[in-house]
Amino acid sequence: MRRLTTILLAALLAGTAAPAALAQDEPQPPAGTVTDFGVQSTALTVFEGFFGTDTSGRPAVYSVQMGTPGVLSVVDPVTREHRHTATMADSSGAWAVTQADDGSVYTGSYPNAHVYRYDPQSEEMTDLGAPVPGQTVLYGFQPGEDGRIYGGTYPGAHAFSYSPSEGFRDLGVMYEGQQYVIDVAVDTEREVLWAAIGSAGHLVRMDLRTGEKRDIWPEELRGDPNYPADINLVGGKLFVKRTKLDGIVLDPDTGAVLARDFTMSSRGTTRVADGSYVYFTSGTALWRYDLTTDTPEPVPGPVTAGGPGVGWGFVDGRLYGLIGNYARDALSYDPATGASERFKLPFPAQPIDINNVSAGQDGKIYTNLYINGTVATLDPATGKVTELGRVAQTDGWFWHEGKMYLGTYPNGAVLEYDPTQPFRSGSNPRELFRLIGDGQNRPHAFAAAGGRLYVGTTPDYGLWGGALTVHDFATGEHEVIRAPVADQGVISLLARGGTLWGGTTINGGGGTTPKADEAKIFTFDLATGTKTSEFVPVPGADSITSIVEGPDGLLWGLADGELFVLDPDTSEVERRVDLPGGYGGVQDELHVNPDEHVYASLDGHLLRIDPLSMEVTELREDGTYRSSQDGAGNLWFRSGAKSANNAVQGGARLLRYTPPADACPGSDLSQNVMIKDVDSGVANRYRPDGCTVEDLIKDEQHTGPALVGHVAKVTAALVTAKTITPAEATKLITAARTARY
């Protein structure tokens, strides 16, 4: 029989032409196409402004704005004219700006953590480089003497100075084990610097002459994640705004509390006093602090500021304030008369990095801007972009029964949006609940089952342990289950059958060092509402960013750049595959495509994974972040390039990858080719056009000799195309002969 089969195969290979659909010279399918839909939104995000002067002595507001790249804008607060915009190349924005006593303006950028110097006379911007190696963000610039400035860093918690004569001077780590020096204050006469430390709550006083440091933060507040965020030294007193907007005034040498229990919403206070008063915003109102009586109070009026102040200055005795951060608002107030005015300043909008992408069930593609929170939609058919409005930075979103659920930072709020109704801030999307009171600030992961929405979150700054929150659609009630895995956050979820599968990260909230060693999967019984297990699928991995049900019915996951496949019935990991690229954060995702392949966006790479051979094809080497898959199988993502410090920049553009056409939708994914009920022993595999060998056999359409002849023809073409070997063809024909009756 074997000899007869071999003769038949040889004859077919020599003298039988393959069907046209299987011909060797058949054009190969395209590798897929990428379409760039361009910048989706331009918007305004003013982080901070400094009221100074230009070279002629005219008033000028120097404001730092988020952008791709970040910029410094120069605006006259009195005439309300825009004078100039200077680019901070290779940055995405800046949290720090000041003007030195020699007239130079300095900005401190992220994510490259460089200092830039702007010359108001020449209008030139110069990149001075990094003051401390290995940092990503600079904070809290303050002017000193002789052209010197001071600032702080993240994640090393350094303070530093710069002067044109001396260059950079690293003042060292301000508090061991912490990551943020988020603001500084300086007494130039006494040569003392204060550093606000996040996120565990410390305030360090440093003698610049001796280097002596000591923590003056009140003892009872140390370790509290409601840490000092903005500090100003005015009138010999240290004004502190904590992260939860609690104001406190301290003696700068002893840390003795002079006043507390008032709200400060602004980024600190005025840098100088007006007589005996220091000004700030409390909520949306303008307040002042009486230095003689240590009393905070609303200014007479009262005066509505409309939002938090992000920069203060006096011009001819009149107070001016930037009101932030997104609407160009400004305020002026005359302390002598009480007269006030609210107005707009012409800061130019900038392209801003997309924070997240979602392919909607309504056919539109949704984008949300980093920090700014503006939501826009793209109609793929027309290319039209529509800006809906601002919500907040959206770190996770999810579609269920036509509605979109948004997980927003910094309050850990979950919102519900109905796209069939007009977008109205505060009502559509409407807030279902917020989790900041439960110590959670970033909802990343969602799943829905049995009339409930499941939300996975990571904790607030300075805290460990995420949460799983269960929201009942019918009653509107929710339950927060803290730390389903001890000291770990919840960043991926999948509901399958009666089980919820959750993936964790060992990372805590901002400014923390992990307590756990490796990420886990946990299971949760949807009927009883109880956790049933936890285990480590990839030893040593920090984060499990994605869990999906694969085309083979198994669970596929991503853990620090490694693909794992596990059996949901046994929780045993059956396969592990190292993928190109490393851990790229919570934005690493898996998508099961209609062509049965699994696509991964991982650390900027776009990968296509064959579910039969587990072969990985790299479709894009970089520039693929925050992916989402639409109903047709197209993948949508934002642009971006990774810098030397691994930060991703240049992410304002939206792109689409369209996979190649699939000639055999719904392919048979049997591991071995089965002919009738006979296992041929030949591994099933794909042809380049998306058909598997099992698809092409079509044994259900033939019996007897016709089956053998059909299999022989198919295998001959597959051998010619080098899809299978002659030996494998022999096995297939033998199986057909065995199964013919």
Which terms would index this structure?
741 residues, 7-stranded antiparallel sheet, mainly beta, 48% strand, Methylamine Dehydrogenase, Chain H, 4 helices, 4-stranded antiparallel sheet, single chain
What features would you describe in this structure?
The protein has 741 residues and is mainly β. It folds into three domains: 42-344, Methylamine Dehydrogenase, Chain H; 381-658, Methylamine Dehydrogenase, Chain H (7 Propeller); 672-738, no CATH class. It is 7% helix and 48% strand. The protein has four helices and 60 strands. A seven-stranded antiparallel beta sheet has the order 1-58-55-54-53-52-51, with no helix packed on it. A four-stranded antiparallel beta sheet has the order 3-4-5-6, with no helix packed on it. Strands 7-8-9-10 form a four-stranded antiparallel beta sheet, with no helix packed on it. Helix 1 (2-15) packs across helix 3 (704-720) and helix 1 packs across helix 4 (726-738). The longest helix is centred in the last third of the chain and has 17 residues, at 704-720. The protein is elongated, with a radius of gyration of 31 Å. Mean pLDDT is 94; it is low at 1-27.
What's the SSE blueprint?
Blueprint: H1 2-15, E1 33-39, E2 42-43, E3 46-53, E4 59-65, E5 70-75, E6 82-88, E7 93-99, E8 105-110, E9 115-119, E10 124-129, E11 137-143, E12 149-154, E13 158-163, E14 167-173, E15 180-187, E16 192-198, E17 202-207, E18 213-215, E19 228-234, E20 237-242, E21 246-250, E22 257-263, E23 277-282, E24 285-290, E25 295-298, E26 309-315, E27 318-323, E28 329-333, E29 340-344, E30 350-351, E31 354-359, E32 365-369, E33 374-379, E34 384-390, E35 393-400, E36 403-409, E37 413-417, E38 430-434, E39 440-449, E40 452-459, E41 467-472, E42 478-482, E43 489-496, E44 499-505, E45 521-525, E46 530-535, E47 544-549, E48 555-559, E49 562-567, E50 572-578, E51 589-592, E52 598-602, E53 604-609, E54 616-629, E55 635-638, E56 641-642, E57 648-649, E58 653-658, E59 672-675, E60 678-683, H2 693-697, H3 704-720, H4 726-738
Antiparallel strand pairs: 1-58, 2-30, 3-4, 4-5, 5-6, 7-8, 8-9, 9-10, 11-12, 12-13, 13-14, 15-16, 16-17, 17-18, 19-20, 20-21, 21-22, 23-24, 24-25, 26-27, 27-28, 28-29, 31-32, 32-33, 33-34, 35-36, 36-37, 37-38, 39-40, 40-41, 41-42, 43-44, 44-45, 45-46, 47-48, 48-49, 49-50, 51-52, 52-53, 53-54, ...
Keywords: Signal
InterPro entries: Vgb, WD40/YVTN_repeat-like_dom_sf
